[in-house]
Amino acid sequence: MAPAWSKEAEEFADELLKKCNFPPAGTAYDCAVSGGPDSLSLLALAVRAGLEVTCYHVDHQIRSGSHLEVELVQKAADFFRAAFIALQVKVDPGPNLEARARALRKAVLPADVATGHTMDDQAETVLINLLRGAGPGGLKAMERGFCHPILEIRRFETRKLVELLSLDPVWDPSNNDPRFLRNRVRHELLPLCNDIAGRDVAVLLARSSKIIAEEDQFLETLAKEIQADRVDQIASIDDVLAKRALRRWLRDLDGEKHPPSYDHLERVLEVAKKKRLACQLPTGITIRRSQGVLKIINEK
Asked: Kind and range of the H or E element at 28?
């Protein structure tokens, strides 16, 4: 059956749009579309919202026949009258396949490209980051905004929309591969949590991530006002805020993609509070207190 905007599809899409976070109609908007139900729904909703959409598809060349997925996405883009750009990367077999594919994909897509992550993805991300020992920065999960416009939509809703539009989505078999942590969280941990709680915990996890994000932003705003290398400022404030200010300072000065761990921040705070003269971080730098100022010594 050919894709079509039936009245039911239009009405359902309009209901979903009330939960979306898109920019104003007429805005140029880039969407990453793999061909799955979520990303196809993103494309459909962005067009329905009146945006000037460019659809990007990345072929990772992992599965045989991936060129057919390119054709499927291009047909969808043509149906929605969106511009289409096909990109190609080469992901070699081996460990960390999912992470390497994600990194290559990110490298070739526009920096502000929108993705079709749903509330279910958000809930999975919260649990994954919790399992990894993340703090508030990880537990807030994906940031709400134009790059994640459908985070308030459920996965069952994207499937219903593509069905109403008579679209034939790509079903990625790797989404069922238990070697990947996200798949085990999706197919094992979340259903177990639902069973134990006696309710749909994805909604609760997504709501918690939103609360954490709001509080994290508030603390981050306060931390920006603190001159973290000044011992007198760090020593005069609460430890929670002090460590956040120190984390920002170290991240900015050392150029590290990942902030120091909780234990390492404790050591730096001890230097600021005159409990030790210096400490060394695993990144190869030493933090030393001198004349009331924290100094970074790069020993890489």
From this structure: strand 28-32
Q: List pLDDT tens digits, range 127-163.
A: 999 999 888 889 999 999 999 999 999 999 999 999 9
For residue 152 the two structure tokens come to: 């308030």
pLDDT of residue 255: 58
Mean per-residue pLDDT for 258-268?
84
| Contact criterion met (CB below 8 Å) for 131 and 115 | no
117, 148 Cβ separation under 8 angstroms: yes
Mean pLDDT of 192-220: 96
**Residue 258 backbone phi and psi in degrees, to 5:** -115, 135
Whose CA is closest to 151, among 284, 8, 45, 51? 45
Domain ranges of the chain: 7-118+153-171, 225-298
Rounded to two decimals, the pTM is 0.88
Q: Are 187 and 176 in contact (CB under 8 A)?
A: yes
Take residue 54 and report the two structure tokens written for it. Answer: 């460019």
- Report the pLDDT averaged over residues 66-91: 90
DSSP state of 160: H
Is the CB of residue 89 less than 8 Å from the CB of residue 61? yes
- Bridge-based pairing of strands 28-32 and 285-290 is unpaired
225-298: CATH topology? 3.30.465
CA 150 – CA 15 distance, rounded (Å)? 12
Range 7-118+153-171 has CATH code 3.40.50.620? yes
For residue 138, give the DSSP letter.
H
Rounded to whole angstroms, how far apart are CA atoms 75 and 81? 10
Token representation of residue 107: 């490298």
